[in-house]
Amino acid sequence: MYCPFCRNPDSRVVDSRMADDGSAIRRRRQCPECGRRFTTVETTSLSVMKRSGVGEPFSRSKVINGVRKACQGRPVSEDDLALLAQEVEENIRASGTAEIDAHEVGLVILGPLQKLDRVAYLRFASVYQAFDSLEDFETAISILRHEAEVEGATGADMKLGNTQT
């Protein structure tokens, strides 16, 4: 690591700490030549491959901007969107791949978005799952209704102390 002050090609790590919920390491370094200290942040790289074949670094802000359009007019806050983007990044990193297709990122977004807002989920899914007809929407809505009924029945059983479903 080059010293940003004197450009010495060597530095010594003085302190290391986790940053950004464990997705990065913050290191305090000291230059043995000039004695000045500086901070570096190390993260693992995660690339998104576009349809054109060009790779670019993963960006939470791009996830937020894409989902924001689907959430337009819905009761979803900026904090909700930031948490969703963090969950999406964590899910992608947990897969262990350093490179992911852009379309796959959209599919990973669907799970957390469904939990956040079902109408926004339908809007987003219609693009990423390439809905072609009203039947596609009807199928997706019936699946959401079934899941809501199962959640409702499970919640009622739990209130009654009944753990079997």
Structure overview:
The protein is α+β, with helices and mostly antiparallel strands. The chain has helices spanning 60-70, 78-94, 102-116, 118-128, 134-159, and strands spanning 12-19, 24-30, 37-43, 47-49, 55-57, 99-101. The strands form 2 sheets. Strands 1-2-3 form a 3-stranded antiparallel beta sheet, with no helix packed on it. The chain has a 3-stranded mixed beta sheet with strand order 5-4-6. The protein is elongated and about 70 Å long.
Give a quick summary of the entry:
The protein has 165 residues and is of the alpha+beta class.
Which characteristics define this entry?
alpha+beta; 165 residues; three-stranded antiparallel β-sheet; disordered C terminus; 48% helix; 5 helices; single chain; elongated
Number of helices: 5
What is the chains' assembly state?
A: single chain
Contiguous low-pLDDT stretches (5 residues minimum) are 156-165
SSE ordering: EEEEEHHEHHH
Distance between the termini: 58 Å
Silhouette: elongated
SSE class = alpha+beta
Number of strands: 6
Main pleated sheet: 3 strands, antiparallel
Radius of gyration (Å): 22 Å
Instruction: Please give the order of strands in the largest beta sheet.
Output: 1-2-3
